[in-house]
């Protein structure tokens, strides 16, 4: 051991029982046997004291020679534990995450903006303004891979959509989904509105081309409209009663008639669904618009149209769409 080799280098004085004047003579002194025993005993004590001093040193010095034995393995184990700790640590919630959550929560009960009160609209505008100031993608048109997706409309201030969203305007159908699909490879945009009724579902959509005009702005030119083939429901659920003008109407006497309607709907469902969608061209020179993207990340997109209206989209499949 290193400590033993070091102690062997320390000089050890022996004690003699001869008179003091003998140490000044030129003759070497011959030690008796008992003095040799005393010398060995003292040397042993000196070795123990030196060894104790060596042990009192920091552990890192005494274990330096043993690094090859267990040092790397220990470092590997400690490194692995650190990696596991890093993997298990939760994702840090940023200020943008909190703003996004607050914005999505404020949409609750507004029916995409149709039923939003003035106080709610003011709160939404404030949250949108804060997010736009922290936009992580300052040049959205240069990040086309983020734009390339199907985006679900969750809020708008565009009053032109309110008649479609109003239940009174469409008593036999409701708007199930409004979406915008961007294909950044072919520079196309498809706006789609899907309706759902008691007997069928259908959609109306428009196809358009877009051109990049600035880091945030694209010019859109609509080319054609499409009326989707109605997907007829092959099973009709007949309720016990319906409410009309504030009064409940019992439908029990009409179950026989409604059952025959259900059978008819089931027989024609396949025939209608097999028909191709109806397409028509949009040749109006005014069928153009521009769109300004003011916020964009992997989940959320905020855009403003030329009329100043705001549109908030969430990417399809995002956790933000979960109720």
Automatic annotation (TrEMBL):
Sequence similarity: Belongs to the PAP/fibrillin family.
Residue segments, region Disordered: 1-28
Swiss-Prot/TrEMBL keywords: Plastid, Transit peptide
PANTHER family per record: PLASTID-LIPID-ASSOCIATED PROTEIN 4, CHLOROPLASTIC-RELATED (PTHR31906)
Pfam families cross-referenced by the UniProt entry: PAP_fibrillin
GO biological process: photoprotection
Descriptive protein name: Plastid lipid-associated protein/fibrillin conserved domain-containing protein
GO CC terms: chloroplast thylakoid membrane
Localisation: Plastid
Residue ranges annotated for the Plastid lipid-associated protein/fibrillin conserved domain, each copy included: 98-313
Main location (coarse class): plastid
């Amino acid at each position: 051991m290193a400590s033993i080799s070091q102690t062997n280098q320390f000089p050890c004085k022996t004690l003699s029982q001869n008179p003091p004047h003998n140490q000044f003579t030129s003759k070497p002194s011959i030690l008796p046997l008992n003095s040799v025993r005393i010398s060995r005993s003292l040397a042993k004590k000196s070795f123990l004291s030196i060894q104790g001093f060596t042990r009192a040193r920091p552990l890192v010095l005494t274990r330096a020679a043993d690094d090859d034995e267990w040092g790397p393995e220990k470092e590997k184990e400690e490194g692995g534990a650190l990696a596991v700790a890093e993997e298990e640590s939760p994702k840090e919630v940023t200020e943008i995450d909190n703003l996004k959550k607050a914005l999505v929560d404020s949409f609750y009960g507004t029916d995409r903006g149709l039923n939003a009160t003035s106080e709610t609209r003011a709160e939404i505008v404030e949250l949108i303004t804060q997010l736009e100031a922290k936009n992580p993608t300052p040049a959205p048109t240069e990040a086309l891979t983020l734009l390339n997706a199907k985006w679900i409309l969750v809020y708008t201030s565009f009053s032109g959509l309110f008649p479609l969203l109003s239940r009174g305007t469409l008593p036999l159908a409701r708007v199930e989904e409004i979406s915008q699909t961007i294909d950044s490879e072919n520079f196309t945009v498809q706006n789609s509105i899907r309706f759902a009724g008691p007997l069928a579902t259908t959609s109306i959509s428009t196809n358009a081309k877009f051109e990049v005009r600035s880091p945030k702005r694209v010019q859109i030119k609509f080319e054609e409209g499409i009326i989707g083939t109605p997907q007829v429901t092959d099973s009709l659920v007949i309720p016990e009663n319906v409410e009309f003008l504030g009064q409940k109407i019992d439908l029990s006497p009409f179950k026989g008639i409604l059952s025959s309607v259900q059978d008819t709907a089931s027989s024609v469902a396949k025939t209608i669904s097999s028909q191709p969608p109806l397409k028509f061209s949009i040749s109006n020179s005014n069928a153009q618009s521009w769109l300004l993207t003011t916020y964009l990340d992997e989940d959320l997109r905020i855009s403003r149209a030329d009329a100043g209206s705001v549109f908030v989209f969430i990417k399809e499949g995002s956790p933000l769409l979960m109720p």
